[in-house]
């Protein structure tokens, strides 16, 4: 159904925010890699090639470790432009790079000194740990990184509860402290010059400060300021519930439609558990709303929250917003309860929009009355697609029939992983440029 045309959206910026943010991150990493190389050369070369390689891999490992902290600091400027899911993906890839450079550092240094002393490599490692300050701490740090790397592998990650994985991941911060003290104690490049020492202290200080600000200072400050509480609990169906949140000065909370928070409801049995839920209505400066489907004890407990329950929310997070639009027309594709952030986005969109809500049956069409009302009052064409997952009802021919000009639109996709992957394949087959495709997964890093 189509209604009266609204005002045209403003033209997209010449430089996309995500491109600017990515270029900034790559630039920061590249400049620091160059600085590390310069300081390495200035420190001089020894006679043993293995020790030389060990020093170099150790320096790059230290840089990667600091970069890792920046990626998971949850700084608003980066998160709004890149998205936590992509930052977390980069963090994971950098983590495996860190693991290999640390292993290379340990192996090259051990074998290099063993070659000079004619000792067995194992005996040499034991000797270094017992006689050289900071080496034992470095061995413990490497062991912790190995454990974290093991539980972060895809096979192990699928088998672990998020809380278990997160708890193990926190040991990374212990490894960071141990590695830094090792670098201070025995790093020849660290003490080669006053400039090198100042550089490393600044690098580590900036990385740790980013984590402190993004993960501690901002969340605590915002929650003290806004004092969030549950104002209503509204069952949407037998398995879906909406929770309305109120608080002070919500007009100053920098949340946008499409973003999510990590919600922690401060009840006696659930205060320790944080879950990511998207806003299911655009923030209006007075209330916030999340809508969740029962998928475990945590989400089932939402139905029993009492009005007045205190809430601690971390966020807002995510780049699934209108900030990244490139075209005047929009297609939004939602699967099941994945409609929640898209329902919020509809309130911010200008221009003609097509919404496709993919569900197994009509009874699974969450918030459908609200969608119909939005379609009636705005320039939105609404399609409810029902039926089993196979045959694929959003395959290229079907999607092209529903939206003939799909390649000329921005496309926002949110739903279960299987459906999202299938829609992305369809969009590629229909020639939709990558820069016009927007999707986000809830992927959190410790």
UniProtKB/TrEMBL annotation:
GO terms for cellular component: membrane. Residues 223-323 form the FAD-binding FR-type domain. Its cofactor is FAD. Its main location: membrane. InterPro entries: FAD-bd_FR_type (IPR017927), Fe3_Rdtase_TM_dom (IPR013130), FNR_nucleotide-bd (IPR039261), MRET (IPR050415), OxRdtase_FAD/NAD-bd (IPR001433), Riboflavin_synthase-like_b-brl (IPR017938). Pfam families: Ferric_reduct, NAD_binding_1. It comes from the Bacteria. It is a multi-pass membrane protein. Gene3D superfamilies: Nucleotide-binding domain of ferredoxin-NADP reductase (FNR) module, Translation factors. The chain crosses the membrane at residues 23-43, 49-73, 94-114, 134-156, 168-186, 198-218. GO terms for molecular function: 2 iron, 2 sulfur cluster binding; flavin adenine dinucleotide binding; metal ion binding; oxidoreductase activity. Keywords: 2Fe-2S, FAD, Flavoprotein, Iron, Iron-sulfur, Membrane, Metal-binding, Oxidoreductase, Transmembrane, Transmembrane helix. It is found in: Membrane. This is Oxidoreductase. It comes from Streptomyces fructofermentans.
């Amino acid at each position: 159904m189509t209604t009266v045309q609204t005002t045209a959206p403003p033209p997209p910026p010449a430089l996309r925010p995500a491109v600017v943010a990515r270029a900034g991150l790559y630039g920061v990493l590249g400049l620091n890699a160059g600085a590390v190389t310069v300081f390495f050369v200035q420190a001089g070369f020894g006679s043993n090639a293995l020790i030389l390689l060990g020093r170099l891999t150790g320096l790059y490992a230290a840089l990667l470790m600091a970069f890792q902290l920046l990626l998971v600091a949850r700084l608003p400027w980066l998160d709004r432009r890149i998205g936590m899911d992509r930052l977390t993906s980069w963090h994971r890839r950098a983590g495996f790079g860190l693991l290999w450079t640390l292993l290379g550092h340990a192996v090259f240094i051990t074998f290099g000194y063993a070659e000079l002393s004619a000792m067995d490599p194992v005996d040499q490692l034991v000797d270094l740990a017992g006689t050289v300050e900071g080496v034992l701490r470095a061995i413990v740090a490497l062991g912790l990184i190995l454990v974290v790397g093991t539980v972060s592998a895809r096979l192990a990650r699928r088998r672990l509860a998020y809380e278990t994985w997160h708890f193990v991941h926190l040991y990374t911060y212990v490894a960071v402290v141990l590695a830094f003290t090792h670098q201070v104690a025995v790093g020849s490049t660290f003490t080669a010059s006053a400039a090198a020492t100042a550089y490393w202290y600044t690098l580590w200080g900036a990385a740790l400060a980013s984590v402190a600000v993004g993960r501690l200072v901002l969340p605590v400050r915002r929650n003290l300021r806004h004092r969030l509480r549950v104002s209503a609990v509204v069952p949407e169906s037998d398995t879906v519930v909406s929770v309305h949140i109120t608080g002070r000065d919500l007009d100053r909370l920098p949340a946008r439609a499409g973003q999510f928070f990590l919600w922690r409801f401060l009840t006696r049995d659930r205060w320790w558990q944080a879950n990511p839920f998207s806003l299911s209505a655009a923030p209006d400066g007075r209330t916030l709303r999340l809508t969740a489907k029962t998928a475990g004890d945590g989400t089932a407990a939402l139905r029993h929250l009492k009005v007045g329950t205190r809430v601690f929310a971390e966020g807002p997070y995510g780049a699934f917003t209108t900030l990244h639009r490139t075209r005047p027309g929009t297609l939004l594709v939602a699967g099941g309860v994945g409609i929640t952030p898209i329902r919020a986005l509809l309130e911010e969109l200008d221009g003609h929009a097509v919404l496709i809500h993919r569900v197994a049956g009509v009874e699974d069409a969450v918030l459908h009355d609200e969608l119909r009302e939005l379609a009636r009052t705005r320039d939105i064409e609404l399609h409810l697609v029902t039926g089993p997952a196979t045959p694929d009802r959003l395959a290229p021919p079907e999607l092209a029939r529903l939206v003939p000009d799909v390649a000329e639109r921005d496309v926002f996709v949110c739903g279960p992983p299987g459906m999202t992957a299938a829609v992305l394949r369809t969009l590629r087959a229909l020639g939709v440029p990558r820069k016009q495709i927007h999707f986000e997964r809830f992927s959190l890093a410790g």
